[in-house]
TrEMBL record:
Domain Methanogenesis regulatory protein FilR1 middle: 123-251
Official protein name in the record: ArsR family transcriptional regulator
Pfam families: FilR1_middle (PF08350), HVO_A0261_N (PF25213)
InterPro entries: FilR1_middle_dom (IPR013561), HVO_A0261-like_N (IPR057527), WH-like_DNA-bd_sf (IPR036388), WH_DNA-bd_sf (IPR036390)
Taxonomic superkingdom: Archaea
Domain (HVO-A0261-like N-terminal) ranges: 7-88
Length: 265
């Protein structure tokens, strides 16, 4: 393990080393091309390439320096580590609220996601971001443990304008809406729309996910239920996961009934 750490330290001591190894793993490069792409001086490149040749990571060919099989192995691992660290840094501010036990995809897929957090002047910015995505879509699918006032109002208007809505909500979420007179009326209006279908699942839904066309959005809340962020991405793997999860909830749910919206006085 000490030798492994020594090699990791060797690569980490210079960003140029990682850049050069990645480049020659992708395609042969001569020293002029490496200098142009990395900004490294010729003496620096000479030292790097000699060190790599000693490790049998690169070899010189007529086309330029190219990575060996072991060099490509190291370059691949370096790229993977770099991407993982970049994703972690991107998500670090919201990672404590990510429902990782319920997510069926590699977190690295969120490495380039858009993250929207509340601010003092825009406390509902995460909700506004989700609504923005809904209004730009032609089809929206949701599975969630809540149906907040802003989103419900936006969906009602969007469906009236021709959008197609398929929502699966926990029974607790529907019950909460039913106990608010104004919200209950909006949900009844949505239920009556030709292009909207709402289903109810008795089990808890640990996530709040919106699939607006091919963009997936997750709302993140803390342990006290306070909204902390919205994360959205058009990553294909995340979309496949969200679509599959929506389908599973959909099959397990029942249609929303009028009795779900009837409150005993």
């Amino acid at each position: 393990m000490d030798r492994v750490f020594a090699e990791m330290e060797f690569l980490a001591r210079s960003a140029n080393r990682g850049d050069v190894l990645t480049l020659v793993a992708e395609a042969p490069h001569d020293r002029q091309a490496l200098a142009a792409e990395t900004g490294a001086s010729q003496p620096t490149l000479g030292r790097i390439l000699r060190d790599f040749e000693e490790r049998d990571w690169v070899r010189a060919t007529e086309q330029g320096y190219t990575a060996t099989a072991t060099g490509r192995l190291v370059a691949s691992g370096l790229t993977e580590l770099s991407e993982s660290l970049a994703a972690e840094l991107h998500l670090r501010g919201v990672s404590e609220w990510l429902p990782t036990d319920s997510l069926g995809f590699d977190l690295g897929r969120l490495g380039e996601a858009t993250i929207t957090t509340p601010t003092q002047t825009r406390p509902s910015a995460p909700i506004s971001r989700v609504i923005e995505l809904i209004e730009a879509a032609s089809r929206v699918r949701i599975f969630s443990h809540a149906f907040n006032e802003q989103t419900l109002a936006a969906v009602v208007e969007w469906v009236a304008d021709g959008g197609q809505f398929e929502g699966v909500f926990s029974a607790a979420a529907i019950d909460a809406v039913a106990h608010e007179t104004g919200l209950r009326g909006q949900l009844q209006q949505l239920q009556a729309a030709d292009r909207a279908t709402i289903r109810v699942i008795e089990d808890a839904v640990p996530l709040a996910v919106t699939v607006a066309d091919d963009t997936v959005s997750l709302l993140l809340r803390d342990d006290d239920g306070r909204l902390q962020a919205a994360i959205d991405t058009d990553d294909p793997e995340v979309e496949v996961w969200a679509t599959d999860r929506h389908g599973r909830y959909w099959e397990s749910a029942r249609p929303l009934a009028e009795s779900d919206l009837t409150i005993d006085e």
